[in-house]
UniProtKB/TrEMBL annotation:
Domain Beta-ketoacyl-[acyl-carrier-protein] synthase III C-terminal: 233-321
EC code: 2.3.1.180
Binding partners and assembly: Homodimer.
The protein's annotated pathway: Lipid metabolism; fatty acid biosynthesis
Name of the top EC class for this enzyme: transferase
Gene this protein is translated from: fabH
Name of the protein in question: Beta-ketoacyl-[acyl-carrier-protein] synthase III
Gene Ontology molecular function, alphabetical: beta-ketoacyl-acyl-carrier-protein synthase III activity
Major site of localization recorded for this protein: cytoplasm
Lineage, top ranks: Bacteria, Pseudomonadati, Pseudomonadota, Alphaproteobacteria, Sphingomonadales
InterPro entries: ACP_syn_III_C, ACP_syn_III_N, FabH, Thiolase-like
Residue ranges annotated for the Beta-ketoacyl-[acyl-carrier-protein] synthase III N-terminal domain, each copy included: 107-189
Record flagged with keyword Acyltransferase: yes
Lipid metabolism in keyword set: yes
Keywords: Acyltransferase, Cytoplasm, Fatty acid biosynthesis, Fatty acid metabolism, Lipid biosynthesis, Lipid metabolism, Multifunctional enzyme, Transferase
Length: 322
């Protein structure tokens, strides 16, 4: 069988790092209030010359470097983002040009915080079909551009960044071999009003700002994430006890803790970066993955579960033998 194997990871963060204390100088909040409710201590904010595409390109370069591959070997780019550089063309095509790739398939996927999982499933399906052999899958955001900085319930939660993985088609006769083993995705558009942006080209003609009902989102997140992780493991024929690491969407430390408890997972098996990066939406999962790979926690051969939930609602999980 053909498997999509992660052979390289990479990430990129804006140069400016903002602490809760610095944020409290302009927003009606405190470090204690933010940490108690979210676990967030820092976030990175993009400068004028830093965009979703530039961050994505830097993350891709790091992933290519980790894999020892040339950009010219890439034949597919799938970029998950809710904050593209332009309404069109796709930011993935800008990344393609920045990488110096003359021709490959390149497009964006929009599923907000679940975007990277959606993009991963798309790329995996295209690789399994035999159409492509080397794919960059990216999550990149500049959420600071769509925040209402007078709304302390949302502006303290988000940050900017990018993460990427390089997938390679590899043949495997072993059901336990490396690669993406199973992915399960969901969407339920009835919950649009709980987490959304109040603008768009076809409605207001403006970009809009993030709006969220945090209590309701928290409740749905814990239930949905625990459920979809169980579903993806069942598809792969594996149990939670076999998982080495869970790499979750970094939205809120309390959601991470509650989800781990619901699944009976030890907190030490959950990769947590929300304290340093805040919620980077589609970039969250690949950014956390790259952090754990580069600091030595995640090693080849280990079983990892990636999971996320975002506006829509959309949610999903992927089981990967790293």
């Amino acid at each position: 069988m053909i498997r999509s194997v992660i052979i390289g990871t990479g990430s990129a963060l804006p140069a400016r790092r903002v602490s809760n204390a610095e944020l409290a100088e302009t927003v009606d909040t405190t470090d204690e209030w933010i940490v108690e409710r979210t676990g967030i201590r820092f976030r990175h904010i993009a400068g004028p010359d830093e965009t979703t595409a530039t961050l994505a390109a830097d993350a891709c370069k790091a992933a290519l470097g980790a894999a020892g591959k040339s950009a010219q070997e890439v034949d597919l780019i799938v970029l998950a983002t809710a904050t593209p550089d332009q309404t069109f063309p796709a930011s993935a095509t800008k990344v393609q040009a920045m990488l110096g790739i003359d021709d490959c398939v390149a497009f964006d996927v929009a599923a907000v915080c679940s975007g990277f999982l959606y993009a991963l499933q798309v790329a995996d399906s295209m690789i399994r079909a035999g159409a492509y052999r080397c794919a960059l899958v990216i999550g990149a955001e500049t959420f600071s551009r769509i925040l209402d900085w007078e709304d302390r319930t949302t502006c303290v939660l988000f940050g900017d960044g990018a993460g990427a993985v390089l997938l390679e088609a590899q043949e495997s006769a072993d059901s336990d071999g490396r690669g993406i083993l199973a992915t399960k995705l969901h969407a339920d558009g009835r919950h649009n009003e709980l987490l959304y942006v109040d603008g768009g080209p076809s409605t207001t003609g403006t970009v809009g700002k993030v709006r969220m009902k945090g209590r309701e989102v928290f409740r749905h997140a814990v239930v949905n994430l625990a459920s979809v992780m169980g579903e993806s493991l069942a598809i792969a024929g594996l149990g939670a006890e076999q998982v080495d690491w869970v790499v979750p969407h970094q939205a809120n430390a309390r959601i991470l803790d509650a989800t781990a408890r619901k699944l009976g997972l030890a907190p030490g098996k959950v990769v947590v970066t929300v304290d340093q990066h805040a919620n980077t939406s589609a970039a969250s999962v690949p950014l956390a993955l790259d952090t754990a790979v580069r600091d030595g926690r995640i090693k080849p051969g280990q079983l990892i579960v990636l999971e996320a939930m975002g506006g829509g609602f959309t949610w999903g999980a992927s089981v990967v033998r790293f």
